[in-house]
Amino acid sequence: MHEEQISESLQKVYVLFEKGKIRPRALLWGARRYKVVQINSSWIDRSHNLPRHGFSLSVDSGEIFQVLYEGNATWKLEYILTD
Q1: Long-range contacts, stretch 55-62, CB < 8 angstroms, 24+ apart
Q2: What single string gives the DSSP state of each residue in 33-52?
Q3: What are the boundaries of each domain within the chain?
Q4: At the topology level of CATH, where does 2-82 sit?
Q5: Mean pLDDT by 10 residues, the chain (83 residues)
Q6: What is the DSSP letter of 11?
Q7: How many CA atoms lie within 13 A of 24 on its CB side?
Q8: What's this model's pTM, rounded to 2 decimal places?
Q9: Are 2 and 27 in contact (CB under 8 A)?
Q10: Is residue 53 within 8 Å of residue 66, measured between CB atoms?
Q11: Are 80 and 63 in contact (CB under 8 A)?
């Protein structure tokens, strides 16, 4: 696996808020829309003023995206993992 640090804001993230959980469904990065195939893991970092929600997502391109919801409707693509 190759890990590439991105650290860029995402233009759009389509999410489902269900039973108190955030479930990303798709995201727009650059000119491409990626569909979330699977949520591999999620976590909450409570060490900041606003809790940050992290997600490891398998997307339809075959890559794994690590994204971060920083509150105030701000999403960031942190890393991409590829084969």
Answers
A1: 55/22, 55/24, 57/24, 57/27, 59/27, 59/34, 59/35, 60/34, 60/35, 61/34
A2: EEEEEEEEEEEEE-SSSS-E
A3: 2-82
A4: SH3 type barrels. (2.30.30)
A5: 93 92 95 97 91 96 95 90 89
A6: S
A7: 32
A8: 0.91
A9: no
A10: no
A11: yes
